[in-house]
């Protein structure tokens, strides 16, 4: 019955504990059927996967893997928001992907694909989203990538 | 009857073919009455209109023209989403405009006006939107500008 | 009866006049119950509170104060949108915070807290929002911070 949970298991993805609220913002807010997920950085088991700008300090491949981890963390927040029932996801609506970039680095889309492909692997057609991927001079705590998400859910 | 199509003709704007989906994201997603359009770069007939940062490699005027082209491409995606019926547009809600900027360049609003004025020319009052315009160290494929859009539509 | 107006008074916050529309965009657009507020810069009585990048030209503390001012300006726009009745705010949904950053500056979250904490002070639980905070190479008119906002309102 837990279709998406089974799919995550098939993919070998175990969702981490959702990050705790930091300061005066929260990991997720729902307005109507839209859930807004705060910008996620590529923490994995307490460690930042990729730190610094691409490609000077972080390779394209490392950055794409970090984007995937941001996506996994966003799914952890979403799962928490939905009391674990990811089958309530109707559609992933939009990803905003910020890539810490050296001047002249223009492969942000390849980095962002790390998060985008995750959503399609997990949700299939319902994971295909609109996206904006851009370069950023620097990101919180030195993260190489930050991903925020809007998801439509059903009751 | 096709009021907006007529208006585009009056303005001498012919919409290009909407860009094909690249990787695991799509040009547009609708959630309720909101259509989210992915970040558009200033492609025109297969060529990037403006490449590099403003003002080092691209003048303010070129960048504003590129922003307008991003807007035209966003309208092409929207038209495709609405099966060609742009008269279903209720309101352009928000533009997100990213301008590839040299350090110290602070005229992002003038660049973004290229896209904003297009929306008002095409849709009149319904084209007046909320906006965030910011500088970016570098953008996908070297584009000088990237524009994403949220539009409210009726059935 | 004007609960939020009283709360602003308690906090010693007087809302400025909402900024006038500039060019072909507007300070706020409502779609359904969501109000989208355009990116605000830290103007206070006609003067930009903080100009340039953090930390080279602007300290962390100055930038956080500027983020708070951006938030105050966003509330001024929202108040104007709601004909002065901020009690119609159901939930602050999302803040987008752009911080003009020198390469290597990674404390954008601390800067963004200036705006986030304001929302919680003013609206309590309803002020707790999703957030994306990122670095930007440079921002409109040299602002050190830009804040945009999505708010859910009731009739």
Topology:
Three copies of one chain form a homotrimer.
Chain A: H1 3-10, E1 28-31, E2 34-40, E3 43-44, E4 47-48, H2 60-81, E5 89-100, H3 108-123, E6 130-136, E7 145-153
Helix pairs in contact in A: 2-3
Distance between the termini of chain A: 16 Å
| CATH homologous superfamily annotation of chain A | RutC-like
Mean pLDDT of chain A: 95
Largest sheet entry of chain A: 5 strands, mixed
Helix content of chain A: 25-40%
Using the coordinates shown, work out and report the CATH topology of chain A.
Answer: 60s Ribosomal Protein L30, Chain: A
Strand order of the largest sheet of chain A: 1-2-7-5-6
The count of domains of chain A is 1
Number of helices of chain A: 3
**What oligomeric assembly is this protein in?**
homotrimer
Q: How does CATH name the architecture of chain A?
A: 2-Layer Sandwich
Kindly report the greatest chain-chain contact and the residue count on each side. Answer: A-B, 37 and 29 residues
What are the segments of chain A in which pLDDT stays under 50 over at least 5 consecutive residues? none
**Secondary-structure element sequence of chain A?**
HEEEEHEHEE
* Total number of beta strands of chain A: 7
Proportion of strand residues of chain A: 25-35%
| Highest CATH level, the class of chain A | Alpha Beta
Overall, the morphology of chain A is: globular
Structural class of chain A: alpha+beta
What is the radius of gyration of chain A computed over CA atoms, rounded to a whole number of angstroms? Answer: 15 Å
């Amino acid at each position: 019955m837990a279709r998406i949970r089974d799919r995550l298991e098939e993919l070998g993805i175990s969702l981490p504990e959702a990050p705790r609220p930091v300061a005066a913002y929260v990991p997720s807010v729902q307005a109507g059927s839209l859930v807004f997920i705060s910008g996620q950085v590529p923490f994995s088991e307490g460690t930042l996967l990729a730190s610094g700008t691409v490609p000077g300090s972080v390779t394209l491949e490392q950055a794409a893997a970090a984007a995937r981890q941001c996506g996994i963390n966003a799914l952890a927040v979403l799962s928490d928001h939905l009391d674990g029932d990811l089958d309530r996801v109707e559609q992933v609506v939009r990803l905003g992907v910020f890539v810490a970039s050296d001047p002249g680095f223009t492969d942000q889309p390849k980095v962002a694909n790390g998060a985008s492909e995750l959503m399609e692997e997990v949700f299939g057609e319902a994971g295909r989203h609109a996206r904006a991927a851009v370069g950023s001079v620097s990101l919180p705590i030195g993260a190489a990538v930050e991903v925020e998400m809007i998801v439509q859910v059903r009751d």
